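A note from the maintainers: we've had questions about how concatenated examples are separated. There is no special marker in the raw files; a new sequence line simply starts the next protein. For clarity in this README we add a label.
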Amino acid sequence: MVTVECKKEAVVFLKTKEVSERRSCQLILLARSTCQYRIRREPDEEFEKQIKELAFAHPRYGYRRVHALLKRGGQKVNRKRVGRVCKSLICKCRAQRKPKSVSASRSR
């Protein structure tokens, strides 16, 4: 499966070869509105910093609890956005658990 970013790069390449955007989008099976779309999201540096602080202060909390703490702090945030940022940050922050030893349970 080819990602949208790869398809956009292919459209840009075809445009350099003097093929119109409309025609190149038809060839690659990509909607022109998708090709022209630009992300307008603000950077998440301050937001990520707050989530990191909460994650280190409360290592057992998941993204829903972190969202509740942010909301309680007076910040208006989307739960899915918190989940997305937590997925990228908290997984890096938390220490991996050691697997339980199987031999201890077998000896009984």
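[label: protein 2]
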Amino acid sequence: MNSIKIWLIAVFGRALMLLINRTLNYRVVGSYYYSRLVGEGKKIIFSFWHNGIFMGTYFWRDKGIAVLTSKNFDGEYIARIIKKFGYEPVRGSTSKGGAEALIQLKKIMDTGKDTAFTVDGPRGPKYRAQAGAIWLASKTHQPILPFIAYAERKWELKSWDSFQIPYPFSTAWIVIGNPIYVGKIENDEQLEQYRQELETSLMQLLNFADHCARLSIEGSVKSEHSC
């Protein structure tokens, strides 16, 4: 019964993402950070909040990015959905199979692929960054690229992350931040400092995305680069 339920959710979820995302007006801030890293030949560790999966998955589709997904029920249908959008699911989480999954992600990055984390997933707390992306960055010497996927007008599910589903034909903001480079980590204090840096960066980007969305609704946005 579970396998049928997972299949149905995956099929419906993918169809819904395609139908709505194709109607959205995507506005991007900070794309030069991404372009610069690509131009430098860097492999990227994308990091964002769990509630932006709906837009983030579509925006970065078909790039062969390896994504950490949990081993629970939700992780199974999420893995099936994102695979249809050109991602490579890697099963594991901060709570189950985390160490093995991170080692697998490192091996994948060593072959030249980018990776991605919903850094407050799979179960929260909301807007609390976990350390997986930090560990991977320290072992691969590749940059973390924080970004926010934020819908101006949306439904917010009554889930731990307030999952966003944008209204059709509305605007979605992708706000990309300054890359974070992680040096050698020798103790828990250093790990916590980097974790806080990532969390702070994402919260600043979230506040900026909310600011841009409010201005856009008011009709006051003159430039996507400045909001």
